[in-house]
């Protein structure tokens, strides 16, 4: 069996790391059309800020992990970029969101990105050092990544219930799956369990989303009741007609 040389192994890890940066950058830019619409309409149209606050927290965690581990340069680059992009989205949201949404977003930011993140920094700095600190932060990052990857379960449930893929764009599912594959291979080649392990789950959920899209990609006619009013005072009869229902615009 052929054995990969250490030089080739290093080049493969570097290649997948760079590819992971490129794909992740494209995923970070996916909400741009939504925020451009918000900017043009000067209205957030009721969509939630939670995904962007969570994405910022995730990027901050991985930045910390990349800073304290050896050879974390590629992870540091993409998550630094991610912090900038997600912060920009949140700022735009805070500018155009209604008052209550602004208050809710600010509270969530303070709780997650200031208090929780600050406590993680404080405890890992005070009570651990060296490889032990890397292990603790790695497990925190990995555990949170699993929670993030599991988040689309509610969307998948909605797709099955409504038989509509309106709220689950296949392009985003594809790039998230590709992202999971690339970072899994990078984690495997660099022997980084904390990067590789959660991306297995990311791949599984990504494939599941694309399968659901394939099953429900064609909108099915909904059953719409039609009243047949009777002139002689009898109860109206209900006729069932199949009429396609126009999809409403997603508010993300």
UniProtKB/TrEMBL annotation:
Keyword field contains Acetylation: no
Lineage: superkingdom: Eukaryota
Main location: membrane
Pfam families in alphabetical order: MtN3_slv
Gene3D superfamilies: 1.20.1280.290
GO cellular-component term (any): plasma membrane
UniProt similarity note: Belongs to the SWEET sugar transporter family.
Protein name: Bidirectional sugar transporter SWEET
Species, as recorded: Thalictrum thalictroides
